[in-house]
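Posting for a labmate who doesn't have an account.
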Amino acid sequence: MKPIKIIKNRSDIGAGTRGADLGVDAIEIAAINKGNNYFSKFEFVDVDTENESIYNKENNSFAKRIDSVFQQCQRVSNPVKVAIQENMLPIVLSGDHSSALGSISGVKAAFHQKRVGVLWIDAHADLHSPYTSPSGNIHGMPLAAALSEDNLDFQQNEVSRTTSELWDRMKNIAIPEQKLHYEDLIFFGVRDTEAPEESLIEKNNVKNYTVSEMRFRGFDTCLEEAIAKLANCDVIYISFDVDSMDCDLISYGTGTPVAKGFDKEEVIHIIDAFIKTKKVVCFEIVEVNPLLDLKGNVMAETAFEVLDHVTKTFQTEGM
């Protein structure tokens, strides 16, 4: 069993709604309220943030605060890489989902010659670029950056030279190359997408295991198939966005809630199955926003229950 290192990234500058920067602390409070000493068990590192950039005058609405998000993803990539190099398992707790680019980049830098698979448990595909994004929020772009994807066939935004250059730098964080290939990406629960993303998913034959498909075909059947799809990957990174869960069933405590998602046990089932392959080298939880939680701290409590369970699976059946 590899020792675990918690990486706390309290940044929400890639999101369109403020408050995800408080998600890490909300998860810790959930543990305390359950009488669980989880956060005293493991080494941790606090990643510096620049959430104050939210007050900066906006110069480009197609990639909001891209300079700060670029810096933040760099900050995340390094402790992920170092933890792996120290033969530890990094568990990343982040605010908004733009951080995933940093995590994937850190994994790829640590396993430069190896093939990296990505499990994306999310209501959204996050395949936009500054050229296609309808919102300009970079938490909808991390996979595109990891894939070095501009998707100019669906360009709708005239992007400034500065933004274009920063976007290219984002694609080259940690090591100057593409971090991920489409055939090594699998979606779980994606159900809120736009045409530019849908075109990439179809064109590149990316498998999305929808909630309805998994319930109809059976989770074990789908998971065996998904594991086989990533059989050629040497290592796997799992990103769990809490909006993959059903907001009506769980909570609206996330920036972009979407109905008809997974329940907590289904998410755990998915993550556990991949941990048991002994290929998972990094796990991340994102987008808990306690300011939007109408039920108190339920989203963070649910996220902590997932975190606590899968950590035990890592300890007993992981690498």
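Reply:
Got it, the structure tokens are right above this. Residues 66-85 form the longest helix (20 residues).
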